[in-house]
Amino acid sequence: MARFMKSTKKDVGLAPDELVFRGRKKMENSFKRIILYNSENIEEQVLKKVSDIPKIMKAGYKAWINIDGLHDEAELQKLGEILDIDQVIMSDVMNVNQRAKIQEYDDAIFISLKMIQYDEAKNEIHAEQLSVVIKDSLVISFQEQTGDVFD
Predict the structure, then answer these.
(1) Which of 134, 97, 99 is closest to 113 using CA atoms?
(2) Which listed residue, of 72, 109, 135, 141, carries a Cα 20 to 30 Å from 103's Cα?
């Protein structure tokens, strides 16, 4: 397990809630989508930027926002501000080298874990961080790269 958890010297001295991506960039551009649903309807939209979220949210709907790609620090900071997510949570999302954990907050639950996949072609094991934030009528999932974990 140690080979999946790497620490770098640039992390030394950073505050625990510093919004800095700590990991290896696994995709060029982040991909963001939102799924709105209630008992009668379901709608899915691709987001160009997280600042579009308030315009898309609808009363009476629950939402699932999925973010693929964790390297865009400015977008993730903006997401935290828009959705009122504690900065410590957002810092944990951006730290892909941490161990799995579940943390309860006053207004949210934060879950972080590793997804392990075996690549038969290369005979290698790959690990990817998956983080989930659960709030009232909202689920936000964060992955290092686009994948089929939710299929």
Answers:
(1) 99
(2) 72
